[in-house]
Each structure stands twice: as structure tokens, then as C-alpha cells.
Amino acid sequence: MEKIIEETVTYLKDKGFENPEIGIILGTGLGQLIEEINIFNEASYNHIPNFPTATVEFHKGKLIYGELEGKTIVVMQGRFHLYEGYTLQDVTFPVRIMEKLGIQTLLVSNAAGAINLDFKKGELMLIEDHINLQGSSPLAFKGVEFLGERFTDMSAPYDAEINKQFKAIAKRKNIRLHEGVYASVVGPQLETRAEYRMLKIMGADAVGMSTVPEIIVANHLKLKAAAVSVLTDECDPDNLEPVDIQDIIANAGKAEPNMITLFKELIRTL
């Protein structure tokens, strides 16, 4: 894998992706942040050597390099998921590339369903811990020890200082920001009523199909990491309505301005 990483990094450096400080992964329906960035360079995933290609129609598939709030950043506009048929190593490959380009902080966004019924759709949840229900680990491959500590500590996967800053910004800007546990499942089907009940018993506040693999690899690479979920639907097993993916994307879009405010204000202080 080291050789593959080197080839990809060389290609991006030749395209002007030089020493970004912060990496950002944008989740489902959360692409508007791009409009706030002073873009220097961009590369389509299908042009980047060894990169997977986004196959979900609402995931754009571009790596963007530019400036936001005075910081150089690299942004994944569109991410990869297990449910697209990728491996966990594919899903997390871009995190390894961003780290080799120079990032020290990784910020992740996603769309998630609210298991905690005190949380409502259109609100945000700061992830303070997670439950990996994807059936494997992005670190479970031969040679992982050459890229970082195999037995990566996960006692505090989300950076406490960044989370503290997020909460302070939310308070200052009057944004409702919950804090909770995110459960990551494979998907792509949504959950049954019994599965929502199980997730609640396990201690999950929200459920989605991403983020956890990238956070595990960020910790493997000793990056500071933080993640925010946009809550797009309410998962009440006793009153479960059929969910339309277009509704989920619309709800993500409604909550996105608050997400952008949080990210911009945080980046300014990093």
C-alpha cells in the first residue's frame, strides 16, 4: 500500500495540492461548503491514480484544494461507502492521502437518523463516541503496521478540544447542537423497527453508514478528528414512517447552513 499511496500523493502534489492543514469530508447532501472556499485546484476522483470513484448519484466525486478562513484545506466532495461495494481500505484511502499531503486535523460530516427521540430532524449532533457495526476494521490488513500502530487506541477517538470549541461556537451562534453516540452500519437499506430498538439499547443516539472507518484511520495516523451529523430523519420504532432518500437529502440541505457556520468558525480558530 505504501507504493500506491506514494503514487497518488505525487500526482496530487504535481497538481498543486501543497501542504493542506485541514482535511474535510462532506457527507450526503452537504456540498454547499464548497461555495465558501477560495479554490486553488481540484481533481476528479476518476482522474486520481488508485482513487475509488463515487458511485452514489448525490456524491459529487472531487478532491478540492483551497483556502477557507485563512487556512489551506483539502475537501472530499463526495465520500465512499461499504455499501457501494468498496472495501474498508478503499473507503479510508483518501484519509491516508490527505495525511501524507500534510493535514493534521480531519473534520467529517454526515447525514444520520436520530435514534434519540429528544433529537429532531434538521438538528445537528456532535459525535462524542461511536459504535462500529460495519463488521470489520479498516486496519485489518496485512502490512498495516508499516503505516501506523496496528493496535490503535480508541479511548478518545474524537478530539476533546475541538468538540469543546464546536460547543462554544454553537452556543455563541445560537445553533442547537446535540452531543451523542453515532452507530455506523453497512446499509444501504435503512433499519427495521427491531434494529432501531437494538441500536437504542446499545446506546446509540444516531445511525448512519459512514464516518467510523475514516475516524479509525485518522486515529491510526495520529490526526485530530471531529465529526458532526446532520439529523435527517427520526427513527421512532413505534411510529415508523417509510423514508424517502430525497426527503433525507432535503432535510440535510435545510440543516446545512448551521453546519457550514460551525465548520467555518472552527477552522478560523484552529
From TrEMBL:
Transmembrane segments: none annotated. The lineage of its organism: Bacteria, Pseudomonadati, Bacteroidota, Flavobacteriia, Flavobacteriales. The purine nucleoside phosphorylases catalyze the phosphorolytic breakdown of the N-glycosidic bond in the beta-(deoxy)ribonucleoside molecules, with the formation of the corresponding free purine bases and pentose-1-phosphate. Keywords: Glycosyltransferase, Transferase. Pathway: Purine metabolism; purine nucleoside salvage. Residues 21-268 form the Nucleoside phosphorylase domain. Belongs to the PNP/MTAP phosphorylase family. It is an enzyme of class 2 (transferase). Its EC number is 2.4.2.1. GO terms for molecular function: purine-nucleoside phosphorylase activity. It comes from the Bacteria. CDD domains: PNP-EcPNPII_like. The keyword Metal-binding does not apply. This is Purine nucleoside phosphorylase. The keyword Transferase applies.
